[in-house]
């Protein structure tokens, strides 16, 4: 990453352009440049046309433009790109390569802010003598996030720490981006057929204020630290200090999940998948929280075999744990009890009042989604994810019509989205694991 410590450009706009018109113009360039490529390419493929009809060169150009716009704008644009990245496993292989590379870059890359600008934020948040809190502070960012960047440092007591500093203007940029991206939700749906883009953007907008206040993130992280303290499989870095726009946590080194996805052995992939699934399904019971930002950039595997989880800005609060109804729905689908399944879905609000829908159609729609629970060990693959995306996205099929008749209640949105994201990562990992035993242990309502 470029070192800006000698830069003389000290304007906030140099990091995150805050003028709505400028950001809107950049985001507007996406549909103009990608409409013919993404919709005309992936869209034709998803509706049954042959792969030969898709121009790979145009797909590569669209991917390049996607990264250029979403990555350099940071804010809501980059956050949206990161959220999309976990669903690339559902894209047909012959089309996915350029998008996979571009979206994966969004998990960890963005241009840094100037050094003097970083120091100004630290002074505003930690006090004018902020440097006395550190024995060492590296001005070159070690990593980037959607609304901030991370520096490596040494705390005054000798502990290695990670210092996340929020970009000036992040609040205005985030709000502007999400408003603009919501306008193009139908177009972006073509980029990630396994994702539900419109509700994803709505959720990002709803939780925006929480993510902008790093004190909320720090409190979430402290709760996870307490819940997983001493765990043999999971490490959550401890919070050292926090302020509205700066959070300091213990530094942890490990192998990013993205590297295991790219080059890991079968054993590494399977174990990483197991650790991720255990963390995801156990968190509501153990912490009464759910880590709600599941992309590979937020996970790493340590030398001692544990999974390290970072970035708790997006966290779902589940004071009563995971809803038992979720386990009941899984079990009824597995047991083929279609009438009872439909009754539960109606009661929970998945079927709007007055909507006529066939119980067997609903059962047929949901059964493939719980197929990982039908076997002692299930192999999550890109091919399986692609098959589900094509099945639900084929406008000529019954599953598409059934899906359009179902409703996702607002209080289920985050759990659904996070679980889909976690499954997307398992497919990227190509992991084989005993998911059923994990769900049976942690998910209320699943056992009869």
Describe the model.
This protein is of the alpha+beta class and 448 residues long. It has 3 domains: 12-109 and 172-209, no CATH class; 115-166 and 213-250, Phosphorylase Kinase, domain 1 (2-Layer Sandwich); 254-448, no CATH class. The protein is built from 19 helices and 14 strands. It has helices at residues 20-46, 56-73, 75-85, 93-105, 115-126, 170-183, 185-189, 197-206, 208-212, 214-228, 257-263, 266-286, 324-334, 338-348, 359-366, 382-393, 398-405, 410-429, 435-442; strands spanning 134-137, 143-144, 148-155, 160-166, 234-235, 239-243, 246-250, 255-256, 289-291, 299-301, 307-309, 315-317, 378-379, 432-433. Strands 1, 2, 3, 4, 6 and 7 form a 6-stranded antiparallel β-sheet that branches. Helix 12 packs parallel to helix 19 (435-442). The longest helix has 27 residues, at 20-46. Residues 1-15, 34-59 and 191-195 have low confidence and may be disordered.
């Amino acid at each position: 990453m470029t070192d800006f410590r000698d830069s003389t450009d000290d304007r906030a706009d140099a990091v995150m352009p805050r003028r709505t018109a400028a950001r809107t113009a950049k985001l507007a360039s996406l549909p103009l440049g990608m409409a013919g490529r993404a919709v005309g390419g992936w869209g034709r493929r998803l509706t049954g046309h042959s792969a030969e009809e898709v121009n790979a060169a145009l797909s590569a150009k669209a991917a390049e433009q996607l990264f250029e716009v979403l990555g350099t704008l940071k804010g809501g644009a980059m956050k949206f790109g990161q959220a999309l990245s976990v669903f690339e496993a559902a894209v047909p292989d012959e089309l996915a390569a350029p998008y996979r590379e571009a979206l994966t870059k969004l998990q960890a890359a963005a241009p840094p802010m100037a050094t003097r600008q970083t120091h100004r934020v630290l002074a505003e948040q930690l006090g004018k003598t902020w440097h006395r809190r550190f024995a060492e502070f590296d001005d070159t960012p070690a990593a980037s996030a959607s609304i901030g960047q991370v520096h490596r440092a040494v705390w005054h007591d000798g502990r290695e720490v990670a210092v996340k500093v929020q970009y000036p203007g992040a609040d205005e940029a985030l709000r502007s981006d999400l408003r603009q991206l919501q306008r193009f939700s139908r177009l972006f749906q073509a980029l990630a057929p396994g994702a539900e883009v419109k509700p994803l953007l709505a959720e990002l907008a709803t939780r925006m204020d929480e993510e902008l206040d790093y004190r909320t993130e720090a409190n979430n992280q402290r709760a996870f630290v307490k819940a997983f303290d001493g765990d043999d499989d999971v490490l959550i870095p401890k919070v050292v200090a926090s302020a509205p726009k700066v959070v300091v946590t213990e530094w942890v080194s490990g192998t990013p999940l993205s590297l295991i996805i790219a080059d890991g052995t079968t054993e590494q992939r399977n174990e990483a998948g197991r650790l991720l699934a255990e963390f995801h399904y156990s968190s509501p019971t153990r912490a009464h929280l759910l880590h709600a930002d599941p992309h590979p950039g937020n996970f790493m595997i340590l030398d001692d075999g544990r999974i390290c989880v970072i970035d708790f800005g997006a966290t779902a609060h589940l004071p009563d744990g995971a809803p038992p109804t979720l386990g009941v729905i899984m079990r009824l689908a597995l047991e083929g009890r279609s009438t009872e399944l439909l009754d539960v879905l109606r009661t929970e609000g998945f079927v709007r009042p007055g909507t006529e829908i066939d119980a067997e159609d609903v059962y047929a729609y949901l059964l493939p989604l719980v197929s990982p629970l039908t076997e002692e060990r299930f192999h999550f693959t890109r091919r399986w994810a692609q098959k589900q995306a094509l099945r639900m996205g084929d406008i000529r099929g019954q599953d598409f019509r059934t899906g359009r008749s179902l409703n996702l209640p607002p209080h289920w949105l985050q759990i659904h989205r996070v679980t889909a994201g976690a499954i997307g990562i398992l497919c990227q990992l190509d992991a084989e694991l005993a998911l059923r035993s994990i769900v049976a242990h942690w998910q209320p309502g699943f056992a009869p």
